[in-house]
Amino acid sequence: MAEKRTIELLEAKIQELRELNKMEEIDMSSEIARLAEKLEGLKIDTYSNLSDWERVKIARHPERPYALDYIDKIFTDFYELHGDRLIGDDRALLVGLAQLQGKPVVLLAQQKGRSTEEKKQRYFGMPRPQGYRKAKRIMALAERFSFPLISLIDTPGAYPGLEAEEFNIGGAIANNLLAMARLPTPTIAVIIGEGGSGGALAVGVADRVLMLENATYSVISPEGASAILWKDKGKTRQAAQALNLTAEHLLKLGVVDEVIPEPLGGAHEDPQKTVASLKEALIRHFAEVCNTPLEELLSARYKRYRSFGCYRTLSDR
Questions:
Q1: Between 20 and 30 A from 254 (CA), which of 15, 39, 110, 304?
Q2: What helix, strand, coil percent values describe the chain, rounded to 5?
Q3: Per-residue pLDDT tens digits for 123-173
Q4: Cα dihedral sign for 241, 312, 191, 41?
Q5: E-assigned strands of 213-260?
Q6: Domains of the chain: which residue ranges?
Q7: pLDDT tens-digit map of 292-312
Q8: Are 255 and 308 contacting, i.e. CB atoms less than 8 angstroms apart?
Q9: Which residue in 41, 39, 13 sits closest to 21, CA to CA?
Q10: Cα separation, 185 vs 137, whole angstroms
Q11: Does the domain spanning 55-306 belong to CATH 3.40.50.300?
Q12: What predicted TM-score, i.e. pTM, was given to this entire model?
């Protein structure tokens, strides 16, 4: 996209002028201010009218904050637990205990890697069966001690390899869906990046579902839908639009409860500001669900997920 390239060039030019401005007898402040104003206007024009496919690319941006970045800035005393007590551990799906404003919570967090080595260790953010069984194990802990559960979702989907099939990935996901739907404690899910298929939904059946502005949430990736529906991998833009996978669409459909704004260009442009916005929304919803009687919370959760997929025929109108 030409506008994005122009933004990158302007940013580089402004940085160059700032370096020159540090030198004695050179005052570039007026030129820097002029270019900064132009840059801001261009960003507003560019990022206020993003297509669904462009938002998919922002959700996948390699510099976008990941789950551990948010955990470090929003929660305190995070203590990670390991292993599913059956096969082993899974580094793509982290679980543990933490505190949110001094109150104990259980955390589930899907984590992608930064370096090549870390990406391999975390299976590129695609949990395996042991990850979902580990999550189910800590759901039981949340139930036992009546701890609220918070889930941070960021995955292209569950790991699709032979190993995952051998250890029953479908069964692990199904068990999580049932366990989380029945969990007798307040639950919140936040889609911070990609929310792909059952791999995301397995830790997303919550009382409140929040979503960052440029995150995505869908039954399948645009590439997958393009290949299956159009038999053409080049139809990813069309598929992204058809899937209604962006926050704006999902809010209208009632799938998510709130869209959390991001800085222009995406969360990676100002991680600190994104963290502050997410923390404010999370604390607000946390207080609401924790102050709701459990019976009322479970009834609302049941109605919420039973209503998804309902439709009316012409004769019903």
A1: 110
A2: 55, 15, 30
A3: 999 999 999 999 999 999 999 999 999 999 999 999 999 989 999 999 999
A4: positive
A5: 216-218, 258-260
A6: 2-40, 55-306
A7: 999 999 999 999 999 887 777
A8: yes
A9: 13
A10: 15
A11: no
A12: 0.87
